[in-house]
């Protein structure tokens, strides 16, 4: 099953994508996570991506598309994948469509996690992430057992560099200008499904499971 997660920054795409990946046995592919790993390892790609990400702008399509196409060409993607944070522009969506068509494949579901802007600001300010294992928490909605410490690996939790209020405001603007048009794009493709992302995480996941059913 090939799934795309759509939604504003902080809508809960990553939270849901991880659950989908584990329930359906397909890889979770987050372009944001791939860029952050490259920044951490100080690779040439990471150095290029950092300035865009820190400002809350999109990394240019030419850097992002090649990386994603390589990733979905790997063996573990044969039975499908869940894409989180890609595509984010119409050219990215077209590039993905072209690559899949060449393989005789297509996207099965584009799941739009809908959350109004005012909730987004609250979500982002409370988000804490583990720099070692990538686990995500929220100070109110999903606190770790011990304050400031990752339940999974014991590392100290941090706030993401792009979760400052000013950067979040820019990310939201970029989302509305460049990414929201993808909702109409996938509607026209006949694969768009919308879920109410303001609900608690398990309720959102139940909505998604009802859409995906038992298909593989
Ligand atoms: P990326 O990492 O993709 O960030 P994003 O899209 O802004 O999304 P987030 O990771 O911020 O949020 P999310 O929707 O996954 O929410 P989460 O589940 O964490 O991209 C970062 C940057 O990389 C971009 O700005 C860009 O520069 C670059 N980039 C990446 N991909 C790119 C591309 N394709 N092209 C160009 N540039 C690209 O949840 C948020 C918080 O809310 C958490 O604390 C969580 O615990 C909590 N939460 C989740 N669900 C709920 C709920 N139902 N109720 C209450 N709290 C909840
Ligand atoms: Zn951890």
TrEMBL record:
Keywords: ATP-binding, Cytoplasm, Kinase, Metal-binding, Nucleotide biosynthesis, Nucleotide-binding, Transferase, Zinc
Reactions it catalyzes: AMP + ATP = 2 ADP
Example GO biological process: AMP salvage
Gene3D superfamilies tied to this protein: P-loop containing nucleotide triphosphate hydrolases
Enzyme class: transferase
Amino-acid positions noted as binding Zn(2+) in the UniProt annotation, renumbered to this chain: 130, 133, 150, 153
Recorded superkingdom: Bacteria
Region (NMP): 30-59
Annotated positions binding ATP: 10-15, 127, 136-137, 199
GO molecular function terms listed in the Swiss-Prot or TrEMBL record: AMP kinase activity; ATP binding; zinc ion binding
UniProt keyword Oxidoreductase present: no
Metabolic or biological pathway: Purine metabolism; AMP biosynthesis via salvage pathway; AMP from ADP: step 1/1
GO cellular component annotations of the record: cytoplasm
Binding-site list for AMP: 31, 36, 57-59, 85-88, 92, 160, 171
Start and end residues of each stretch annotated as LID: 126-163
Cytoplasm among keywords: yes
EC number(s) given by UniProt: 2.7.4.3
Location(s), subcellular: Cytoplasm
Principal localisation: cytoplasm
Quaternary context: Monomer.
Family in the record: Belongs to the adenylate kinase family.
Domain remark from Swiss-Prot or TrEMBL: Consists of three domains, a large central CORE domain and two small peripheral domains, NMPbind and LID, which undergo movements during catalysis. The LID domain closes over the site of phosphoryl transfer upon ATP binding. Assembling and dissambling the active center during each catalytic cycle provides an effective means to prevent ATP hydrolysis. Some bacteria have evolved a zinc-coordinating structure that stabilizes the LID domain.
Record function comment: Catalyzes the reversible transfer of the terminal phosphate group between ATP and AMP. Plays an important role in cellular energy homeostasis and in adenine nucleotide metabolism.
Protein name (Swiss-Prot/TrEMBL): Adenylate kinase
Species of the source: Shuttleworthella satelles DSM 14600
Taxonomic lineage from the root: Bacteria, Bacillati, Bacillota, Clostridia, Lachnospirales
Gene designation per UniProt: adk
């Amino acid at each position: 099953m090939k799934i795309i997660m759509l939604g504003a920054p902080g809508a809960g795409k990553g939270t849901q994508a991880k659950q989908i990946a584990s329930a359906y046995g397909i890889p979770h592919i987050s372009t944001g996570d791939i860029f952050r790993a490259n920044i951490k390892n100080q690779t040439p790609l990471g150095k290029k991506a950092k300035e865009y990400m820190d400002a809350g702008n999109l990394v240019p399509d030419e850097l992002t598309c090649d990386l994603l196409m390589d990733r979905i060409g790997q063996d573990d993607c044969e039975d499908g994948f869940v894409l989180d944070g890609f595509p984010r522009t119409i050219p990215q969506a077209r590039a993905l469509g072209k690559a899949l068509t060449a393989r005789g494949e297509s996207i099965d579901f584009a799941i739009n996690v809908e959350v109004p802007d005012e909730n987004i600001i609250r979500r982002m300010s409370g988000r804490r992430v583990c720099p070692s294992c990538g686990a995500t928490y929220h100070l109110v909605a999903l606190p770790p057992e011990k304050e400031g410490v990752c339940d999974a690996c014991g590392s100290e939790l941090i706030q993401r560099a792009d979760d400052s209020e000013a950067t979040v405001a820019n990310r939201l603007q970029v989302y509305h200008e460049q990414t929201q048009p993808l909702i109409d794009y996938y509607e026209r493709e006949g694969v768009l499904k919308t879920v109410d992302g303001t609900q608690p995480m398990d309720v959102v996941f139940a909505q998604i499971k009802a859409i995906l059913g038992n298909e593989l």
